[in-house]
Amino acid sequence: MAKKSYRQAINEALALEMRRDPTVIVMGEDNAGGMGAPGADDAWGGVLGVTMGLMPEFGRERVLDTPISESAFIGAAVGAAATGLRPVAELMFVDFMGVCFDQIFNQAAKFKYMFGGNAVTPVVIRTMYGAGFRAASQHSQTLYPMFTHIPGLKVVVPSSPYDAKGLMIQAIRDDDPVIFFEHKVMYDIEEEVPDEAYTIPFGEANLTREGEDVTIVAIGRMVQFANEVADTLAKDGINCSVIDPRTTSPLDMDTILESVEETGRLVVVDEASPRCNMATDISAAVAQHAFAALKAPIRMVTPPHTPVPFAPQLEDLYVPNPAQIETAVRAVAGYAR
Amino acid sequence: MLQSNRQDLLKAYTQMRTIREFEERVHTEFAGGTIPGFVHLYAGEEASAVGVCMHLGDKDHIGSTHRGHGHCIAKGCDVKAMMKEIYGRKGGLCGGKGGSMHIADLSKGMMGANGIVGGGPPLVCGAALTAKTLKTGGVAVAFVGDGGSNQGTTLESYNLAKVWNLPVIFVIEDNGYAESTASEWSVGGSQTKRAEAFGMPGTKVDGNDVFAIHEAAQEAIERARAGRGPSLLHVKLSRYFGHFEGDAMTYRADGEVEALRRDHDALKIFRKRVTEAGLLEAGQLNEIDTDIAAFIDEAVAEAEAAPPPTGDDLLTDVYVSY
Fold first, then answer.
1. Which of B82, B129, B150 to mutate to test the interface with A (most CBs of A within 10 A)?
2. ipTM (interface predicted TM)
């Protein structure tokens, strides 16, 4: 075991599965890089280097560079999955779903149901999301709620290198279409990650902090903020449970409800825009199924209902931060009827 | 060559007649109110599906369109199960969950009719990628309408198939109308020149002549199987019914369909050719007609008698596991 980055963890998962299973292929824009160009082969390994090194080991037949043509190659990944391969396609920035969503939500997601059960579509679509890179409105969105909305898709949002590796291996071995969300700000965070292959099952939340006063549900990058806040508040005697659902579809509501039954207070932290996001979804489910246990109104910490801005000062105001989470937790902890 | 083999001639006629009888019957039954939903019929276009799919086996894949019944039949899907599917019944090819626009049978290499115009070509590129990667020797055919030929997905797929050198054949079935809009107006440039612009051969074919389609498809498919990449066929044909069932076709010329049925019908042309050349006898063809009419009667009766899906079926088949 060694310290590995979120980027390395995903790369290692891909390499391990490609070695294990010859039907696993990788495709995307510049996934190797330099295709047809006079300079270096494997020039990029993906725009942020996640697939670096795969092409030299597995060859261009299994690490396919594509034209900038998301509809065609995401659709091709779906069609290849339905006919016997296990493709991992990279939709570089999730914002680009706008030019290829049909192939994901009308085709991949629905084959099994529309065809009366007679289809398996084991495709993984890797995609980068999230603000913090000063990448502005069209390269920074957090769009997992839009995929979570679609029956037939599974949606994975890993919050750590360890989880990213185990969830990616699970995603590749899974027989349903999986959308795998990688937060671009997290690629360089490091932790101990085992060298061997392991899987983390979908639909099983991770309890990263345990406390009896307030339940914080946080997703993706927000999990580290929630953990920080929980550690800070513990010193003041406010003990929080932090729940990382790991996958938004399937969603482990049981773990969230159990925790709220105990604490009676809930804060949900979601980097997605505030309308119809995971915070509203989880809050509605808690209000429906654990109303009697609630001792305070549910609080949601989200960005404002705006596009992601460019100017660093504005973007910093946009992204939910630990101070906002702390304020919300203190508010529900101190709430009295 | 289709002419040289009697069994092939009989198969071609049987399939074309099955498609025609199926579609004419669905038209009648739909008008009677027993079939739910949206239905788009392939009558008049039979020679295209049959002329192409006669070269294909189960390892080969096709992607179809919303007008997909003919492609299904030509690719070997169970015709009675198709009829049940169109009625939305248990025992349907997709358990009554897909309907006319989503009929599929992956075990036969039929990747589905498709409710999204232009939805199929990227998927077909994927099937071709599987064939290439796993070296199955298979090819993949994207059937696309003249309407679908203007979708970005289709044009992107031309490019992807070319740069990945995929064993794909794009078959543009140009029936002259994208819904109610004439393809003469809606298609910029020419279908075959579009193909050439992407670096692949493009051939225009008379869609009422199954012999011509069979021959052109053979060349394109052999080329794909030999690893020489994609090609395109522009098949000019006509549909006898509306865009959807219920379309009054006010956009068509007076007497247009009657003239097509009288002078340009693929089945009539086939019958004349093979009987005049002494390849088949009229009696044989009449016998096929009678048998197929009885078979489609049975298919309708069995579909009408089949039970609908139940509440349990609503919730199954969304995921392999969840």
1. B129
2. 0.96
